[in-house]
Design brief:
Layout (H helix, E strand, L loop, with lengths): L17 E5 L2 E7 L6 E9 L2 E5 L6 H13 L2 E5 L5 H4 L2 H8 L3 E3 L1 H11 L7 H10 L4 H10 L2 H5 L8 E2 L5 E4 L2 E8 L6 E6 L4 E5 L21 H10 L9 E4 L5 E2 L1 H22 L6 H9 L6 H19 L4 E6 L2 E6 L1
Helix pairs in contact: 5-6, 6-11, 8-9, 9-11, 10-11
The structure holds zinc ion.
Length: 337
């Protein structure tokens, strides 16, 4: 199998630098204040101005970069792929500054709002209760509690109104038509954008070249099956032409959708096989976390992703009747059937 190909080479632009993918499609690399150290923002020529896809997280470095970018690239619209703070974080700030309207799916807008305002099981307390039930120790629970509402910090405000995008809708950005492809499993209603005449897929977090997309179970849908949802969703990209250029939210632009989907299917199958063998003995999501990720996870930010994804693998296997849950001392264990 051919590896995926990076047509823009090995180098990545510096933080805040703008590179041209096409004359009317630009790549802006935005720094992030956590382990995943950058997010890619795409600027698409849109009449006299530019539409951006995603915005970056709220912190001073990103605001300073945007201040400079906006001098040369007036913003006419913001399209946000999903509700995670590195994507939607600065949409409220940008809207107040430029009046550029926000385009987003309803599922993602409402999810962002629920996290910011800590509504129902979208709260940190509900996440802690879910992770405790899945065996997470007090030290790491405490670290997550001290970290608090990361969404509220990374995205303190949203524009009060938005325009809804949904599966299959098509709209013009400048002289090109783009189509929305909805994906599940990473976020509730993630929007990727495809332009046939440019041969470009803006994949957001649904297809990344070098890291495996996080597929978390959340406290608001504890019995969800995001791993199945994710695998079903990325298979939809297989019908796109093989020479499609993929613009991902993290990492470099690449060509090779088929190879990447093949790799991710195998990757998750290997992980499921591992979890299944571990479940010869009773396991919790916490006890499979280190073998699943091949390292000890202590950082609160990473722990949130890893616990959510460990539960996702257990739910995936349980829903195929390969393992069964049982409860002991208010903790959920799983064992091979
Ligand atoms: Zn994301």
């Amino acid at each position: 199998m051919h590896p995926i190909h990076y047509p823009f080479g090995e180098t990545t632009p510096a933080d805040g630098q703008i590179s041209a993918i096409r004359p009317d499609v630009l790549w802006l690399r935005m720094p992030l204040p956590f382990v995943l150290n950058h997010v890619n923002i795409w600027l698409l020529k849109d009449g006299d101005g530019w539409s951006c896809v995603d915005t970056g997280v709220t912190w001073d470095k990103s605001k300073a970069i945007w201040e400079k970018v906006l001098e040369d690239y007036p913003l006419s619209r913001q399209i946000v792929t999903h509700s995670h703070p590195d994507h939607v974080g600065l949409s409220g700030w940008l809207n107040a500054k430029t009046a550029a309207p926000l385009w987003m799916t309803q599922g993602e807008y409402l999810t962002a709002l629920a996290h910011i305002h800590q509504i129902g099981n979208y709260s940190v307390d509900a996440m802690l209760a879910l992770f405790k039930r899945h065996g997470l120790d007090e030290i790491r629970l405490d670290a997550l509690k001290r970290r608090g509402n990361a969404m509220g910090v990374g995205c303190p405000i949203l524009p009060k109104t938005y325009d809804t995008i949904r599966e299959g809708c098509r709209f013009a950005i400048g002289t090109h038509e783009w189509e929305v492809i909805i994906g599940y499993g990473h976020a509730y209603e993630h929007a990727s954008l495809y332009c046939a005449d440019l041969g470009i897929l803006i994949s957001g977090d649904m297809l990344l070249p070098s890291i495996s997309t996080n597929v978390p179970v959340s406290a608001c849908y504890p019995n969800g099956n995001p791993l199945k949802d994710f695998l079903d969703s990325i298979r939809k990209f297989r019908h796109l032409p093989p020479d499609t250029l993929v613009l991902p939210s993290h990492g470099r632009p690449f060509i090779g959708i088929q190879q990447r989907v093949d790799f991710l299917e195998k990757h998750h199958q290997t992980r499921c096989d591992l979890v299944l063998s571990l479940c010869e003995q009773p396991q919790t999501a916490c006890s499979i976390m280190t073998p699943l990720f091949n390292r000890e996870i202590n950082d609160a930010h990473q722990c949130q992703f890893a616990m959510g994804e460990a539960i996702a693998h257990l739910n995936y296997l349980e829903q195929q009747s390969l393992i069964a849950p049982f409860e002991k001392d208010s903790v959920c264990y799983f064992q091979r059937m």
